[in-house]
Amino acid sequence: MKIRYRGAAPLRHSKILRLLSVIGGGLLAAVGLELFLMPHKLLPGGIAGLSALLSHLTEMRLGLFLFLLNLPFILMSRRQINLRFALYTMLGLICLTAGSLALHHFPAATSEPLPAAIAGGLCLGFGLGISVRFGGITSGSEKQGVRLLNGGPPKSAEMGIMLFNCAILLFGGSLFGWDQAMYSIIAYLLAFEALRFSLRDLSLSQAVWITSSNCEEIRRRLQQSLDREVKLVRSTGPDGQPGTVFCLASRLEEEELASIVHGCDQDSKIVINAARNSRISALFRNHPPG
Questions:
Q1: pTM, whole model, 2 decimals?
Q2: Strand order in the sheet with 231-234
Q3: Phi and psi, residue 43, nearest 5°
Q4: Which class for 182: exposed (0-12), middle (13-18), buried (19 or more C-beta within 10 A)?
Q5: What confidence tier does 158 reach under pLDDT thresholds 50, 70, 90?
Q6: Taking each helix axis from N to C terminus, what angle separates 178-198 and 46-58, rounded to the nearest 10 degrees?
């Protein structure tokens, strides 16, 4: 199976670089939590904020709560992501947990809460972003990640997420003081923006052209797995002449798409054309099923 890219080629990294990036991202996030946020009782929101809050209340290690609270999300999303992505996800979580446990007894990197909120939020956001970008830490499936990057979580979940983060910040403010709550909000916003910056181009749609002698099977499998319309541009000829399939996919979905196509036809060819969303949508509309 051959994959050829036109336009801006998507990121392709060796396994060693991918492993180092997942490990480094997890450790950077641990630095942000243990050396900046935790010593000043700052809560960044989300699962990390809940873990920090529980750690302060119970005086148990932050790393323990990070592992226990993130593990269910990995297990629940196992059916929706491929095994390789799940293994990188587990590696990222283990590195975050191990880094947090190793840094627990180190002194704070700064004695001032404002620099701690800024540095801690940036380290946490970029650390998680690097790890997610290379297939590590995640709290949902790749499809959910694409929805988040395309403009936020599903509408039905927005209110629940907002209330969850507000509850963490309010509870933390009542325990540690409202000055800490204000610094926590700064840390949360910086972490969120750093995460979005790290993942800024992963959700861009790309035109994918697949040439294969098993087009109908590929079309059916992709339509089921990617949960979107897949066009059969040219059917496979009666003499075995290859046909063409067209669909849209984000960079996060490239590996899953290639795996599906490879499983249907080892000799298939894939051309990925990175272009603007409007241009791709026009291409998609102008190629009715063959």
A1: 0.68
A2: 2-7, 269-274, 206-212, 243-249, 231-234
A3: -110, 115
A4: middle
A5: low
A6: 140
